[in-house]
Design a protein that fits this description.
single chain, 10 helices, Rossmann fold, Spermidine Synthase, Chain: A, domain 2, four-stranded antiparallel sheet, binds S-adenosylmethionine, seven-stranded mixed sheet, alpha/beta, globular
Amino acid sequence: MELWYSEKHTEDVKFSIKVNNHLFTGQSDFQRVDVFESDEFGKFLTLDGLMMVTEKDEFIYHDMICHVPMATNPNIKNVLVIGGGDGGTVRELTRYPSIEKIHMVEIDKMVVDVSREFLPITSSKLDDTRVTLFYEDGIEFVKNKPNTYDLILVDSTDPIGPGEGLFTREFYRNCFEALTEEGILVNQNESPYYEGDAREMIRASQKVKEIFPIAKVYQFHMPTYPSGHWLFGFASKKYDPIKDFNPSKWEEFGLKTKYYNTDIHVGSFMLPTYVKEMIESG
Ligand code: SAM
């Protein structure tokens, strides 16, 4: 009998992957955690039945959350990752010898444990000596840490369950305070395509815009997320991701990347008309 993983992307749309094995299922204090294995996407992790990471397309998300801010300000030294329990974001950050300290605050230890067991592809650098893991709520963690981080990456779940508070004005305000004067925030910004996701995307980008002098949105192609069209928010006190972007400076790091390159960096901020209009009209 065939086994399929199926996820509702809207009331009328489902996305399905044929799976060979259901490798893990567990209920943590925060969410249901599952790992499946498939021919097309390799192993993949879901939380409360929503796709988080697959072996095949994780490089796209992790390249784009990490290299866009790092190429905008190559002098970043202290980084905070909020969420990101699969470890893929930390893995990309550890490729920069210039980064001195990486704090990762993940609310759910089960996600990290399961990723270490089943997804070494993403979790392989969680033991880097520069990395400190905190099993705490990122919403609380970021409070009262003025002028501490050069970069905050919000690698969160959707705005439901434990991730809900990571999409609030108060949280973005606390991130602003926790950043140094050179600071950059990159946050999960959902998809512009389906109405429900687009509403969250507009709300998140409006709130960030009220707090940060520079606030933009950039896009990438994520095959296993609803509609395949996904956005990150980029916000900063000082750096514009296009005007202050110096491709040759980033190229000096000599990193080989599979999705990110210096053309994509610029192109990802060029948004389709309907997305621009949504963001402008709020
Ligand atoms: N790339 C993924 C995506 O967009 O679907 C996100 C992956 S990562 C596994 C998301 C993590 O955020 C989860 O492990 C979840 O436990 C964590 N998370 C959710 N809310 C959180 C909070 N308030 N504080 C810290 N971590 C949180």
